[in-house]
Amino acid sequence: MNLYKFQTINNLSLEGLIKHSLYFARTDQLNDPTEGMFALEGHSKDLKKFGILSMTKGEPSQIENSPFMWAHYSNELKGFCLASTALFQA
Length: 90
What we know:
Layout: E1 2-7, H1 11-19, H2 44-47, H3 60-64, H4 67-73, E2 80-85
Antiparallel strand pairs: 1-2
């Protein structure tokens, strides 16, 4: 199974490549208003410390060549996509 991370090209993403690290957005930074819509009463302070990892299953070609993924997660087709082999099975 492969993992994919679509990103915008900017100083932070390039620094991540150099340092071998990834950035994951907080729920209040996501571009889809329906993401993160769940009841977490009493935990909002704790959740600000954590990022979001969103995963999907599909054929590699469906993900790598998806206009939707490129448009929404890589700055309107101007970013890049990192692909990695997972160390676990879904």
